[in-house]
Amino acid sequence: MPAPINTFKQALARGERQIGCWMCFAEAPAAEIMGTAGFDWLVIDGEHAPNDIRSIRDQLMALEASPSHPVVRLPIGETWMVKQALDVGAQNILVPMIETAEQARDMVRACQYPPHGTRGVGATAARASRFGSVSEYIQTADAQVCLLLQVETRAGIANLDDILAVEGIDGVFIGPSDLSTDMGHQGNSAHPEVRAVVAEAISRIRAAGKAPGILGVTEEATQAYFDMGAQFLAVGIDVLLLAQTARRLAAGWKAK
Questions:
Q1: pLDDT digit string (tens) for 134-152?
Q2: Residue 193 has pLDDT above 90, yes or no
Q3: What is the largest CA-CA distance in the chain?
Q4: Over the range 11-24, which residues count as b (16 or more CB within 10 Å of their CB) and which as e?
Q5: Residue 122: what pLDDT?
Q6: pLDDT bucket at 187, cuts 50 / 70 / 90
Q7: Of 44, 41, 50, nearest to 12 (Cα)?
Q8: CA distances (Å), 18 to each of 93, 153, 218, 240, in order?
Q9: Residue 194: pLDDT band by 50, 70, 90 thresholds?
Q10: 41 beta partners
Q11: What domains are there in the chain, each with its CATH number?
Q12: Active-site annotation, residues
């Protein structure tokens, strides 16, 4: 039995737009609820949310019955982190703060078994292989891993073409908040200078045959990124959705 077919990876390869949402509660019940909403993909955020490998595993389990594809964002691009995420069952990996082609190549190798990569061969005892019941997992897993890299600094943008030339990358995600701050605009991702860089980056990613991605947290920003051609587009964050809805509800009734 081979590794499960990654239909999210296939959809990106076909150029299909995938609408997603960020998850920062770091709790399986919240992930299970988000899995009923109808998003194409959901990010389990290991960078800024209070996740560890156990909570990531639990959220992957919670999304097992959902049509939404889980994407695990690591805290940083470390080989051992990639290995753990893959072994607990992630097939879609998002790596932040990529600035060079060398970093990109390291992440590609981390997602692949030898002789092409550096992933440790311990899948028999891992959730990824259904604890050894997926008999051909090691032979087939590499082809089903979707690797998405985040470019979110001036250095990363300067090296974008070199990063895009690395074989084994499925998509590049532009991080507008970090990028705008690095450009001197302190998180103002709506600044015209930032928007121009983002638009150009999305165009370059598409021209290289990769999927461009980004996150919008306001309707205006999300529409702008949609119009730029972002292919895997996150349109909100679960924590903000709850906070904003709760505040609006309280304010509306208290004003009566």
A1: 999 999 999 999 999 999 9
A2: yes
A3: 68
A4: bbeeeeebbbbbbb
A5: 87
A6: confident
A7: 41
A8: 15, 24, 18, 21
A9: very high
A10: 20, 69
A11: 7-254 (3.20.20.60)
A12: 48
DSSP secondary structure, the chain, as one string = -PPPP-HHHHHHHTT--EEEEEE-S--HHHHHHHTTS--SEEEEESSSSS--HHHHHHHHHHTTTSSSEEEEEPSS--HHHHHHHHHTT--EEEE----SHHHHHHHHHHTS-TTT----S-GGGSGGGTTTTSTTHHHHSGGG-EEEEEE-SHHHHHTHHHHHTSTT--EEEE-HHHHHHHTTSTT-TTSHHHHHHHHHHHHHHHHTT-EEEEE-SSHHHHHHHHHHT-SEEEEEEHHHHHHHHHHHHHHHHHT-
